[in-house]
Amino acid sequence: MENENLLAIAKEFGSPVYVYDSSKIISQYNRLSGAFKKVKRLKLNYAVKALSNLAILKLMNSLGAGLDTVSVQEVKLGLLAGVKPSNIIFTPNGVSLEEIEQVSAMGVQINIDNLSILEQFGTKHPKVPVCIRVNPHVMAGGNSNISVGHIDSKFGISIHQIPHILRIVENTGMNINGIHMHTGSDILDIEVFLYASEILFETAKNFENLDFIDFGSGFKVPYKPGDIETNIEEFGEKLTKRFNSFCKEYGKEITLGFEPGKFLVSESGYFLANVNVVKQTTSTVFAGIDSGFNHLIRPMFYNSHHEIINISNPEGKERFYSIVGYICETDTFATNRRISEIKEGDIIAFKNAGAYCFSMASNYNSRYRPAEVLWHNGEAHLIRKREVFEDLTKNQVDVDIFSKEAASVS
C-alpha cells in the first residue's frame, strides 16, 4: 500500500483506523505453503485469535486455509464465515468439558491439552477423534508471555506423562488421530524448533492411527528494517525432509499441520492515528495521538516494536519523538524514535498492526474501538464500523433502584 492510499482511507473512514492489505496476506500464505511444497499432505490452519474479522476468515477460507480456534465463539465465527467444520481445529486451554463437548457436537476437530479432560472426554465420547497437545519442554519464543512450550508452561501435557496418556487411551478405547505442539511465538532458532519436532515424532510413534501431526507455529516476522525473521524456506526444506522420512517409518502418509497467525497477517496491517498535540518538555518531544493502549496494547504488554511513520510528511526532516496515547496513565508506544517531523493534525501509521492488535483492543476509558478496513484489489472495503456511544451501553441494564433519599448525603 502507498501512503496516499492510507491517507485517503484515514480521510474517508476517520481515525484511528485499522487497515489490512489482502495482497500481503495472500503472499505470506503462498510463501509458507511453497516452503512445504514437497509435503504430500499439508494443512495450514489460520490462528483466528490473531485477527478474527469475518472478512479475514473468508479470505483465509478462499485460500484453502483451515482455522485454529481457542474458544467456542471463534468456532462460531469460522462457521459463519463459511468454513467447514472439518477444516477447524479447536485448541483451547483450561476450558470446561461442556465447552469442548459443545464444539465437538459441531463436527470440529478436538485438541485436548490436559489429562483430566482427556479422561473425562474419552470416557463419555470414545469414538470421537481427538488430537493431543503435548508440552515438549522446549523454551522458545521472543517473550516470556508468548513462550508456551517450556516445563513451567500451563499448556499441553508433559512429555513425561506419556504413560498416563497411553493408560487413559487404553482404558477408554478412545481414538487419537493427531498429535500437536506449540512452543511459542517469535521463534528464531530453527534448530530449536527441529529439536522439539523430534520429540513430537517420538511421541507420535506411540499412536497407531494418526491422521496428522500439528507443529503449531510461532514464526517470527520482521518488525523494522533489517530485523531478523524466521527463515521459512530453510525451515521448510529441513522439516520436509524429516517429515517425509517419518511418514515412511510410520507406514503411511499423514498430514503436516501448522497454525500460523502472526506470520500471515501481521505485516498486512497498518494502524492509522491522528496527532492531537505536539508537546515539548525540558527533555522530550511528545506526539500525542487520538488513541492509546486501549487500541494497541502490544508495546505496553509485550514491549513490542512497531515501526511508526509520518505518512503526512514522509520526506520531512527527522526528529526524535516519544509517541504517546490519550489514556490517563503511562501510555507509551515509542520512546525517542526518529520520525519525519510531526505537526498537529498529521496522520501517523503503525506497521505490523495486523496481528493481536484489534483483537486485543478494549473500551478502556470508555473509548470506542476503531473501524477496520480491508484493502483488496486496489479498493478500500469497510469490514467493521467504528463503535458509537450506543455500543458502550447496549448490554448495560439501567436499574431504577436508587431513590433520591438514599443517594443524598446528609
Automatic annotation (TrEMBL):
Record: residues binding pyridoxal 5'-phosphate: 218, 356
- Which parts of the sequence belong to the Orn/DAP/Arg decarboxylase 2 N-terminal domain? 24-266
Mind listing the GO biological process terms from this record?
lysine biosynthetic process via diaminopimelate
Which residue numbers delimit the Orn/DAP/Arg decarboxylase 2 C-terminal domain? 18-354
Identify which residues the record assigns to the active site: 328
- Per UniProt, the enzyme's principal EC class comes to lyase
Q: What does this protein do?
A: Specifically catalyzes the decarboxylation of meso-diaminopimelate (meso-DAP) to L-lysine.
Q: Which PANTHER family match?
A: DIAMINOPIMELATE DECARBOXYLASE, GROUP IV DECARBOXYLASE
Protein name, UniProt field: Diaminopimelate decarboxylase
What species was this sequence derived from?
Aquimarina aggregata
